[in-house]
Design a protein that fits this description.
54% helix, Helix Hairpins, Arc Repressor Mutant, subunit A, 5-stranded antiparallel beta sheet, 5-stranded mixed beta sheet, alpha+beta, SH3 type barrels
Length: 610
Amino acid sequence: MHPDVAKLVEAGRVNAAVGQRLSQVAPGCYLLSKSWGAGKVVSWSLRDKIVIVDFADKHGQEMDLQFVLQKTEPLQPDDFRAKKLEQVEELRHLAKSDPVGLAAHVLQSHGNSMTLDAFEKEINGPVIPQAEYKKWWDNAKKIMAASKRVAVPPRRTEMIVLRSGDMTPAQALVADFEVARDPKVKTKALEALATEVHLLADDSDTLHRLYTDIDAEVKRGTRLNLGHVLELMLIRDQMAKSAKVPVPADTSKLTDVIKSEYSRVSEAISSMSAVRQREIYDSFPIAFGHFWVEKLMGVVEKAGARGLGEIAKIFEARGEIGALEDYLRRAITRRSLGHDALIWVCREREASGSNVFSADVGAAILNQLESDFIADGPRKSQRLQSLLNEDKNLLSDLVTLMDVNEARNFGRRLMECPVFNELDKKSLMARIIKAKPETETLVSGEDKNKEEELLVSWASLEARRAELKELVSVRIPQNREDVKIARSYGDLRENFEYKSAKDMEKYLNSRRSDLEKDVARARGTDFKGVDCVTVNIGTVITLSNAAGASYSLSVLGAWDSDPDKRWVSYLSEAGAGLLGKKVGDQVQLRDHDTEQQKDWKINSIEPFNP
């Protein structure tokens, strides 16, 4: 007790408890104010009830004694905040020589934990110059992580914690996992523990506690965070194998979760590394037994380019690659293969995808780009478009597989595709022309007269006219309103609604231009009075092959293709190949299931009956 206060206590003017509190604000003592922070008492006058305090930013502050007793709290001389007042050089030296020691000192003064924002506020500026703080902190985090003494969270809103000094490195790693709440942080903590699992080889109790914690996380998170759950289970099983401490039989198994959540697995693991995805897909044969090929094939469309690469390796290793190739060929022919799978086929066209890469891949790519362009929401096929632009040999490799008519149709469709700007179209067409010089007229315009007129059915012409009318009178005016509304949201650089509306504006205007050109050069027909001496537009042809198989198809107008009815456009590959042929002639047609050209004989030619 301060001597001046002791006299007051002995005289009975104040009681002992008040005397103890008075002694805490005596000259030379440190205190903490919510308004001014830490300060040191310079002098006082008990008679006048005045205390003079030096704060960091306010020296010689005169304060009422009663206010000081009620509104401040005492600080010990070794408290970090007290040391900042008079021993800041010592703290600066500690920051350079022992970052962990400095962090521990700060945390001890705040009950061993505080938010990162509060931690930074204590040292950024007073101890470490603001210009140097980021560099110091990046280095300090690494040292703290290695020391295991201080647990640094990934988010600024979470607590930085000083661990108990008697923790072993293994216990510190376990503590990191147990206190983590964010799924990504929890996974990283378990990965760090897995690399040091040998430290727990003789501590089966701790491992079993970990297994129990992981199982609780699995049961709690399967519905909402499946990818996190699967990754935890993979790491757990690897740890069990390395430490030779098996997972208890009553805990959740990876294969059981894969079976129960089959429809969500591929999407949930799409952001994982290729190694992790391979480990998940490698579990399918165990999870599904004899049905694993069917089940693994069922996730191809959702797996992404990286996942499909790992799936292909599994099929190849188990001698089932042919089944995967057949599936991909059929999907490409139906134009149903997704953008990620198409990316894989294109990238692997000289390796794993060589038996799948065909001329139809080009049409499938344009299909994906056009469909995605007019769909609502963010562009999913951006990477596919980038691949077409950046892979300088892709178009050349595609066009090389096409005959002249196919190449011309592909080039024409690319030039009409609303996804590409004019500069990109010219660049892409230059690659097509280099591979197939006959397509140059698409750019030079020399073939325009040949395409002056399109022969179409009346029904398809009316459908195009109706679409054009709806565009002009409904969709384009509505889009203008959408653009105005989206612009009102502000900040056009980050305004998704505005970008989406402008993209749709480009598509609608492009589509309008195409429809106007098509309708202007279209001539309607009912296909009556057609000459059936040879295959003409508006004829039905019956074909047969050497194996005895037969079928018929109709060659109709430019816009009349319908695979279900076996109607083909006279501009299509099959239609162009049949025009002018007579009964008894041999023709070659592409089998869309096998991509092979097959020989057929024309048995009859009859008029088409609408």
